[in-house]
Write a structure and sequence with these properties.
The protein has 286 residues and is α/β, with parallel strands linked by helices. The chain folds into two domains: 88 residues, Leucine Dehydrogenase, chain A, domain 1 (Rossmann fold), CATH 3.40.50.10860; 129 residues, Rossmann fold (3-Layer(aba) Sandwich), CATH 3.40.50.720. The structure holds ligand LMY7XDAE. Ligand LMY7XDAE binds next to helix 2, strand 3, helix 6 and helix 10.
Length: 286
């Protein structure tokens, strides 16, 4: 089975549009998201454009702040201070990666935690770690869980989930979410020994390593659910640009029970979950 992330994102946005309309009717609140982009990275520009477009499509307010590549860290912090104090802005997102002269961790820490719709602020990651209610949860990990449940149903308890990758943005939070779902969780990374053997034990395999076609068919247990977070741009045999995930899709598809494709898997869910977080932020701070 191929898990259709594009369709799951459409379904989530439809449900959010209804919620947004209800929030307007009942409380006269229109959720507002501001996306900040520093520089002109082509992929980031596309992601930001899609975020703004989809936010508006579900009836929310969205604005984009484009800053030049030579923006200083102090200038970006000043911009965030203004957004933190603007009551019409419920969600703030700074598109990553930032230019090298800006320290991402300083910027993430400067976003008001209740407006941190990326869920990257230490207060939100701490809440997730403690299993507290009210955390804004990172979008890609949320998308992974929703997509895994499309195949496995709501109850993931007792399943062995193996996560490849330990980033703060995907690997660690997705592992915590799987733990909340009562999975047995193994986190693996570049120094893990016997990686293939560990992956073969997975009922749910999450690949978030950033290496094209890294996960081979021989690493996958028959019937496993495979969630591919990778977005890697490579050249095909004719020199044409092509987008692939971290999983050797063609080979793994024949063995697994279900798999997310790239494109059309986790990526679209990242943006849909961002809209979900913005609605939650607006509701929580009404
Ligand atoms: N502040 C953040 N920065 C970044 C995040 C993030 O969650 N917050 N994630 C990524 C980029 N990203 C969202 O920002 C993102 C990446 C990919 C997609 C997506 O829909 N991909 C499509 C393919 C699109 C293409 O052709 O490039 C797919 O997989 O089908 C959405 C959002 C890094 N930065």
């Amino acid at each position: 089975m191929i898990i259709d992330g594009k369709q799951a994102a459409v379904d989530l946005r439809k449900a959010l549009a209804i919620e947004v309309a209800q929030l307007k009717k009942d409380k006269n609140i229109t959720p507002g998201l501001t996306v900040v982009l520093v520089g002109e990275d082509p992929a980031s520009q596309i992601y930001v454009r899609n975020k703004v477009k989809q936010t508006r499509e579900v009836g929310m307010i969205s604005s984009e702040i484009k800053l030049p590549i030579d923006t200083t860290q102090a200038q970006l912090l000043e911009q965030l201070e203004q957004l933190n104090n603007d009551n019409s802005v419920h969600g703030i997102l700074v598109q990553l990666p930032l230019p090298k002269h800006i320290d991402e961790s300083v910027i993430i820490a400067a976003i008001a935690p209740h407006k941190d719709v990326d869920g990257f602020h230490a207060l939100n990651s701490g809440r997730l770690l403690n299993g507290e209610k009210g955390a804004l949860v990172p979008c890609t990990p949320q998308g992974c869980i929703i997509l895994a449940k499309k195949h496995l149903g709501e109850d993931l308890s007792g399943l062995h989930a193996v996560v490849i990758g330990r980033s703060n943005i995907v690997g660690k939070p997705v592992a915590l979410l799987l733990l909340q779902e009562h999975c047995t969780v193994t986190i693996t990374h570049s120094r893990t020994k016997n990686l293939a053997e560990i992956c073969r034990q997975a009922d749910i395999l999450i690949a978030a390593v950033g290496r094209p076609n890294f996960v081979k068919a021989s690493w996958v247990k028959k019937g496993a659910t495979v969630i591919d977070v990778g977005i890697n741009r490579i050249e095909d045999e004719n020199g044409k640009a092509k987008l692939v995930g971290d999983v050797d899709f063609t080979a793994v598809e024949k063995i697994c029970g279900a798999i997310t494709p790239v494109p059309g898997g986790v990526g679209p869910m990242t943006i849909a979950c961002l809209l979900k977080n913005t609605v939650e932020a607006a509701r929580a701070n009404a």
